[in-house]
Write a structure and sequence with these properties.
It is a single chain. This protein is of the alpha+beta class. A three-stranded mixed β-sheet has the order 5-6-7. Strands 1-2 form a two-stranded antiparallel ribbon.
Length: 256
Amino acid sequence: DREKDVGGDTMGQWKFSPTGLTNEELSIAVRLHLGKRVSRSGKCPKCLVLVDDFGSHVCVCSAMKHRAHTPLQHAVERIAIEANLQPHHCPPPLYHLRRREVLQARSQESAGAEERDSDDEREEPDPTRPRELETRKPDGSIPAFIGGKDAIIDYAVTYPLQEAYIESVALEGPGEAANAYARLKLRKYDGFIDPSRQEFYPVVMDSFGGCCTAAHDFFVHLACLWGRNHSMHPSLAVPRIFARVQLVVVRQLAGL
């Protein structure tokens, strides 16, 4: 049952948003939601791949992903500002927590190599770079977001019915495709987040308005802060904020 698969206590809030959608956007959004035909078959204007007439390609095309990703980030940042927070759109890169330790070890190894006889045959440098010397560039951050810790945010929008999810997670329950994507984000940032002062949030939403567990917790807390600043009870603020962010994703995909 499609409605059950993509439903949930907060996933359909966009349908009741006071700002609404145009008739055409609503028609396309509902057709995407129900798996109905939305367009004629042809080539994607961005990547030139042949696409079907169900509109699913726009949800996974790498050339179009930013069309929903970026507006989602802007919407969250606007809400954060309305909550008297100070979001950072382009925070500095994150360094691995063991970076200094690894650099010191490599420095000592280099010093030892310098002491070898100059006639010794030197080994070629290892072309693989240790993970500890890599960096991670989050999409955004919000200082002092929760418990005095900064929120480090990586945004993404995914499509639950793409082939990668169909047999594994798409039918396990609402938001499971987003949760699967969020787990990839968590592995990517593992070791780059300082738990004493940072909290990492993979804000992953799906094309039906669902989101991963971490994003759900993030939005609920953001909504409570927003509601406090607008003298609104969380029971009213939470569905309103969910509707706003879901509407951004649904509208962008419907307009592609």
